[in-house]
Amino acid sequence: MSAEGLWLLDYDWEVDGTSETITIEFRSDNTYTFGDGSSGDWAEIDGLIVMKYEDGPYPVFAAVRVGDALVGLGTTGGGYNMTWRGRRVPMAAASSGGPQNEAVAVARFLASE
Q1: 102 vs 90 pLDDT, higher one
Q2: If you count DSSP H runs as helices and E runs as strands, how many of each does the chain have, helices first?
Q3: Could you tell me the pTM of the whole model?
Q4: Which of 53, 86, 95, 104 is buried most deeply by CB count within 10 Å?
Q5: Is pLDDT above 70 for 99?
Q6: CA-CA distance, 29 to 2, in Å (whole number)?
Q7: CB-CB contact of 92 with 104 (8 Å)
Q8: pLDDT, tens digit, 9 for 90 and up, residues 20-46
Q9: Domains of the chain: which residue ranges?
Q10: Residue 83 DSSP SS3
Q11: Maximum Cα–Cα distance for the chain, whole Å?
């Protein structure tokens, strides 16, 4: 099993206890897109995921994946650090078809927790 698919990430910039949630889709062509439209490239080897952000001061994120859970760290290199964790949205809920279907899938997933 790889990380391909739709995930919910809870991230905390500045590691101050304040977190936000965003979706991320890992694609089979080794690209990813966050729910805000930002994107980049990713690779996974033995459960270690490395993500290269396409734009901005966020060069690389890294995470460890165990099954349907992720735990990661990131830095801008300019003094901003972050922590994040993620959980996979089950395939039954994650039907393709763009942001509207993605929002419905996430809502179904959260309602089932």
Answers
A1: 90
A2: 1, 8
A3: 0.77
A4: 86
A5: no
A6: 12
A7: no
A8: 999 999 999 999 999 989 899 999 999
A9: 5-112
A10: strand
A11: 40
